[in-house]
Write a sequence for this structure.
């Protein structure tokens, strides 16, 4: 098999002094690089691409890849007058979200994957997927993409290499991570790296014309935590194809974190600055498509408060020698949900997306810009919908897919913290757990201590959204918002959280809170305005951290005194406030029964301190029913 480089076919004439061939294999002599070369050769041997391209992360390379995708009809270049440097991709209609049912944890022992993951025996699943990868890149280019999660060389950072046959994935990884030869230098120095392989599973016969979004009906997203590998087949969707993100930075990294004493979390990261100029750091876990990006880019509606964005989806968190928890955002960009992102809901995101953005499955305007539901109050009179069909407001269907996305560099966010990529990260003051709950869960409740906070985290449940396949609206348990992302047994993960807490100084551990912006009244109306007004909840949280405000004990944790919430300038009727904080002991006893059922699925592996939190909760609730 001939493996040439992408641009060798147009190689410069011999009289031009030899310049490095674009996309060629960089020459290192270290033994560690020999391992990388051998691995790349073995994948090329298996997948049989026409060309191998080593990605150097340069601007000119990125531009060439984008240009090529436009020429091939895989990207539509948006009108530079409205959206410079930006593109629209339209996926195959069947490849629009993470495929949790096709996502596997192939740990040696089944109990290490646990009941919340699809487990597969490593040998068996290798035997199943290897034939799928055989020749899967025929007719295509195989890209080798070295990437770093976290600043290259940082103490909390980790590196990996993704092999992929999707240029769309390469250009997306270029936004979402730090790609380039600096990472190869690290590999050459012997730094461990994670191996990730991705194929869209659509080989081309000689002369066969490619389609706009190649993919395969058969999909496998397989993680091998014992050998730190990911193999993804059949999907081009970001969550399945940008392997540095969910696959590595959450599923594999959670396993590395378990073994090394740190946490890989599905959390945004912000710096909150109070009117006196004092800064606090908050991490918050919410299930997919529940407003994480909105909170990450919060514009407080209360005067004097500011928020700086540090990350919108993933945080790597490690106990420091000072007894505090330190966190970084390992990513370099945002892969956010477009619908619902608008001037009134997240003006910061709208400003971030001014250009240099890859949009996927949003609608196209006649003037060559993009649109999605919620960007503006009124829809344009005509659009091309996400499937490429003419659309008008009368069409009676959505113009953008509900899980349509933008991919954009973090550095483009107007309120990004100046030190957002500082290698050592930031010390955490508070951790929030949230979900989308129409009933029962108050606007905010504070855990009494770390163990109670872990108990709350283990009990998060939320109404399903479009970020993954499944029935939207259905209530599902999503502990720590990590249900689809924890790479090992969730009960062991609960124990790990307890253990990390023990490594902290008790007076320096972040305080833990549960929040719910989505509670509805009996008439089906949202009780809380949400968005920028969530700063009022953050304000109370910060004042709790500071010890400047009291709370009221309730059976489920500490609630604000309503008079301590800053409600200046908004009109939330007293009855709504009462409903927002109502705790119905009978309904909570039913929640406790569901917790018991959930814990029982782990065959006795849930740590005893959480079982005893459950008993204590029931005791307090029963007392409350009697009073
Ligand atoms: C995401 C997700 O894309 O959680 O961030 O699905
Ligand atoms: Mn996410």
């Amino acid at each position: 098999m001939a493996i040439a480089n992408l641009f060798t076919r147009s190689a410069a004439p011999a009289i031009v002094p030899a310049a490095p061939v674009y996309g060629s294999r960089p020459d290192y002599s270290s033994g560690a690089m020999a391992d990388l070369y051998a691995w790349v050769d073995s994948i090329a041997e298996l997948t049989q691409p026409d060309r191998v391209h080593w990605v150097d992360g340069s601007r000119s390379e990125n531009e060439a890849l984008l240009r090529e995708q436009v020429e091939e009809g895989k990207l539509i270049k948006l009108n530079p007058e409205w959206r410079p440097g930006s593109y629209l991709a339209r996926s195959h209609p069947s490849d629009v979200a993470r495929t949790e049912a096709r996502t596997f944890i192939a740990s040696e022992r089944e109990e290490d994957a646990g009941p919340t993951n699809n487990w597969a025996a490593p040998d068996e699943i290798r035997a199943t997927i290897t034939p799928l990868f055989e020749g899967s890149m025929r007719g295509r280019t195989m890209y080798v993409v070295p990437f770093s999660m976290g600043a290259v060389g940082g103490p909390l950072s980790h590196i990996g290499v993704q092999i992929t046959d999707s240029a769309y994935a390469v250009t997306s990884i270029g936004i979402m991570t730090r790609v380039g030869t600096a990472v190869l230098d690290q590999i050459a120095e012997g730094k461990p790296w994670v191996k990730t392989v991705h194929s869209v599973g659509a080989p081309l016969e000689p002369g066969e014309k490619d389609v706009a979004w190649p993919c395969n009906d058969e999909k496998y997203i397989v993680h091998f935590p014992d050998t730190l590998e990911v193999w993804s087949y059949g999907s081009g969707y970001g969550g399945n194809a940008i392997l540095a993100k969910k696959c590595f930075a959450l599923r594999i990294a959670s396993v590395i974190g378990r073994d090394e004493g740190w946490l890989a979390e599905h959390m945004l990261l912000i710096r909150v600055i109070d009117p006196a100029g004092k800064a606090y750091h908050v991490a918050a876990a919410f299930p997919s498509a529940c407003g994480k990006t909105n909170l990450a880019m919060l514009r407080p509606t209360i005067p004097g408060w500011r928020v700086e964005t540090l990350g919108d989806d993933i945080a790597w968190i490690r106990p420091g020698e000072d007894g505090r928890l330190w966190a970084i955002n390992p990513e370099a960009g945002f892969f956010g949900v477009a619908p619902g992102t608008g001037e009134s809901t997240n003006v910061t995101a709208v400003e971030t997306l001014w250009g240099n953005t890859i949009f996927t499955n949003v609608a196209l305007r006649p003037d060559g810009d993009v649109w999605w539901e919620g960007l503006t109050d009124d829809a344009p009179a005509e659009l091309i919908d996400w499937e490429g069909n003419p659309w008008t407001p009368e069409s009676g269907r959505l113009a953008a897919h509900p899980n349509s996305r933008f991919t954009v560099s973090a550095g483009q966010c107007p309120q990004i913290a100046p030190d957002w990529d500082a290698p050592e990260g930031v010390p955490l003051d508070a951790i929030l757990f949230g979900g989308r709950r129409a009933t029962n869960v108050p606007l905010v409740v504070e855990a009494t201590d770390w163990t109670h906070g872990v108990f709350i985290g283990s009990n998060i449940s939320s109404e399903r959204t479009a970020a993954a396949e499944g029935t939207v609206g259905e209530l599902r348990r999503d502990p720590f918002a990590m249900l689809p992302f924890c790479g090992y047994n969730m009960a062991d993960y609960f124990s790990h959280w307890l253990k990390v807490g023990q490594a902290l100084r008790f007076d320096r551990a972040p305080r833990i809170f549960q929040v719910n912006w989505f509670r509805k009244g009996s008439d089906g109306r949202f009780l809380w305005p949400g968005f920028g007004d969530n700063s009022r909840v953050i304000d109370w949280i910060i004042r709790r951290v500071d010890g400047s405000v009291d709370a009221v004990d309730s059976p489920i944790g500490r609630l604000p005194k309503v008079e301590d919430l800053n409600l200046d300038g908004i009109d939330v009727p007293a009855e709504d406030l009462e409903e927002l904080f109502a705790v119905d002991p009978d309904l909570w006893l039913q929640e406790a029964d569901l917790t018991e059922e959930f814990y029982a699925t782990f065959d006795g592996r849930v740590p005893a301190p959480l079982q005893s939190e459950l008993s204590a909760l029931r005791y307090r609730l029963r007392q409350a029913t009697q009073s």
The longest helix spans residues 608-626.
